[in-house]
Amino acid sequence: MTLPATPRTPFGGDYNPEQWPEQVWKDDHRLFDAARIDTLTVGVFTWALTQPAEDTYDFGILDRIVTEAEAHGRRIVLATGTGAHPAWLARAHPEVTRTDFEGRKHRYGQRHNSCPNSPVFRRLSAALAGRVAERYAHRPAVIAWHIGNEYGGACYCDLCAAGFRTWLREKYGTLAALNSAWYTTFWSHTFHDWDEIEPPSALTEHWRGPDHTAFQGITLDYLRFMSDAMLRNFRDEKAAIRRHSPDTPVTTNFMGMYRPIDYHRWAPHLDFASWDAYPPEDAHPSWAALSHDLMRGLKAGRPFWLMEQAPTTTACRDVNPVKRPGVMRLHSWQAVAHGADAVLYFQMRASRGASEKLFGAVINHAGRDDTRVFREVAALGAELERFGPVALGARTPARVALLFDWDSWWALEISDGPSRLVRYQHVVLGYYRALWEAGVDIDVVPVTADLTGYDVVVAPALHMVKGDLAQRLEAVARRGGSVLATYLSARVDEDDNAFLADVPGPLGRLMGIRIDEWDAREADFGNPVHLAGGQLETAARLVFEIITPQGADVLGTYQADFYAGTPAVTRNAFGAGHGWYVGTDLDQDGIDWTVRQVLDTHGLAGRHRDQPLLESAARVAPDGTRLLFLLNHAADPLTVPATTGGTDLLTGETFTTGEPITLDGRGVRVLREN
After folding, report:
1. pLDDT digits (tens, 9 = 90+) for 587-624
2. End-to-end CA distance of the chain, in Å?
3. Can 376 be counted among the known catalytic residues?
4. Which of 214, 281, 450, 586 is the most buried (most CB within 10 A)?
5. Residue in 68, 150, 237, 376 annotated catalytic
6. Could you give all domains of the chain from N- to C-terminal order, each with its CATH number?
């Protein structure tokens, strides 16, 4: 199964006409025409309308929505409507509502409100998905199915406890294997019956919140179980759809770097990846780039869909700044540059009431076509229409891979020691940003990915090392590549138990080091680190691993405390390549220096690496066409020499290699390379 077939980059987004009188719909479609909107996601939260009672279905409103969209030539992403269950379901079957981490049984309200292990929820959600598919599968305008919406959260009810025990039986087979994996001889926790096992919550293994647990193995498995339970909900609905629609692609909207759900476990079950991009307004532009690359990596480099983004302000944070002029266009092209084959919004028309009434929209409450936001959306729609299909199906030709691992994320942040201030996202973002600013193309891949095509593999905070990963990383270096790992890597196995070996465990031979001790300090403490023989001084924070070289060369040293003069950054010759290790949380300038040493070893100089807010990304189309995207994230114009000759597909201008190329503030160039 592939991406939906479209003649150009789909443009549009979430449309909820059931919220307004039908006389508004005609005006909406007039405005959609003006903005070149060709794709609508409909039916996301329509369960209460399409199934007003357990034995009653009413598709009248959804029929009219679909028919109206078809009449105007729109393509439709049709949702199953199961993102929030209706009030009648909670009243008739109260077991479908969730029990929270504190043990409180919830009543009806909000969304993300369904217990994923409720047999009633599983039965009725799949039945609705099947009914929707049966009714609309023959409609040519329906190009994709959208199951649920932004899956997430967790439940701790008795149904989940029973489901957890079943999941554990399937995973471990015997209680002896489970007790060994969970290290239950600690604190007299040995289990002698499956029914003795409780979900880890504030009432059992946790104190001071979800990340403080007495038994990391139990909590880690519950995180895995809950991700799998919601995946089973998705698969229930997909199976129901497939009985009526065997060929139309199926997806659900992910949320980028979202901790509760392991998207790598989900990826094989989606026909194509899609996600909702809402970067913090004060985030560095590499935040969104990393998220896009993570989504692209879910399907082995195949393009994804940008299913949602805000055309202007959001309404989901304490403070919600408006997007400045040009930022919406810039963010949209950034998504395309990193592999998006669709640019869609939430939302098409602003809701009148409830929690998202002040969430920005393409069309405001007054229905105007002369607002700044509408004009910017319409201009982008015309630009994408001229751009045509040239980027559809295009891949990213990366020689650098960054490993992203939900198990390491979970295990690191539920660990007691050495520092609860270390956050997985922070570590990963620091190293991704250094690569991004160096101007190299990056694949963000799971730890199970084939690494044979990469010259450089960066593994930040690879806390857990599973299976044959250590051997595959050694193979990268043995053939001449570089592997870069950081502090707190290779500390635990797949059960979250420490390796009975010197730190960094199975990576010790590759890195050529041994770590016997590690220091930790508050966030405001910095230990100076000298790099490049003292030519660069940076600061180290949070965790300070005390490294003893076992053959590795020293590239940077601590300058304070009893371990002053000991290594902080090392490089070890291994085969024809190297293992690089950073034993502390360097400031960004120190990370940048280290990453560029690695890249320079392989001649990966990158593009425009002296322009920290100029982003570049390449895509190669199925016909061999090479596209180079240049995006200026600064508010001021800049001029740089062209690194390749080509034609700007947005303006028609041509450039030769070395010729000056100017980008407006927040400007975009897309060069078709000669």
Report:
1. 999 999 999 999 999 999 888 888 999 999 999 999 99
2. 33
3. no
4. 586
5. 150
6. 11-154+229-387 (3.20.20.80), 158-221 (no CATH), 400-601 (3.40.50.880), 614-673 (2.60.40.1180)
